[in-house]
Amino acid sequence: MCHKRMLAFEKFISDKKHPFFIDYTVTNYFFKIEFQRGGLPHLHTLLWLDNFPSVDTSEGREAIIEFIARNVQIESDCRLLSADINRNLQ
Q1: Which is more confidently placed, 6 or 52?
Q2: Predicted model pTM
Q3: How far apart are CA 36 and CA 12, in angstroms?
Q4: 43 and 6 within one domain
Q5: Do residue 48 and residue 85 come from a single domain?
Q6: Same structural domain for residues 69 and 35?
Q7: β-pairing, 41-50 with 25-35?
Q8: Do 77 and 37 have their domain in common?
Q9: Are residues 37 and 6 in the same domain?
Q10: C-alpha angle with apex 38: 42 to 74, nearest 5 degrees?
Q11: Which H, E and C letters describe 30-83, residue by residue?
Q12: DSSP 3-state assignment of 88?
């Protein structure tokens, strides 16, 4: 089951007709599967995107912050995190 999901994710981000991100194309990627308590898999992913804004300009940095706010999600069991991390997640 895990292998099928990994292949589906790989196909999804590689589809040139329907890009993973509307304004960018995934040009390369790295992912690692880890297993949580109880054996449930989860995926850590690093994507290289074509035409992504540069960190060298203030406009680029602002665009990156907006991109992260729009696309990055964090789910956590707050009981397992320290108070400092909880404050930053809220």
Answers
A1: 52
A2: 0.59
A3: 24
A4: yes
A5: no
A6: no
A7: antiparallel
A8: no
A9: yes
A10: 35
A11: EEEEEECHHHCEEEEEEEEEECCCCCCCHHHHHHHHHHHHHHCCCCCCHHHCCH
A12: helix
Contacts of 30 (CB under 8 A, 6+ apart): 45, 46
Q: Tell me the residue range of the domain where 90 lies.
A: 53-90
Residues near 19 by beta carbon (within 8 Å), at least 6 away in sequence? 25, 26
**Of 72, 69, 89, 73, which Cα lies nearest the Cα of 81?**
89
Paired tokens of 32: 């690692």
The string of pLDDT tens digits covering residues 29-81 is 898 888 888 788 888 888 888 888 999 999 999 999 988 888 777 666 655 55
- Is there a single domain that holds both residue 42 and residue 67? no
Residues 28 and 57 in one domain: no
pLDDT at 60: 94
Predicted local confidence at residue 1, as pLDDT: 60
* DSSP code of residue 26: E
Say what the pLDDT of residue 81 is.
52
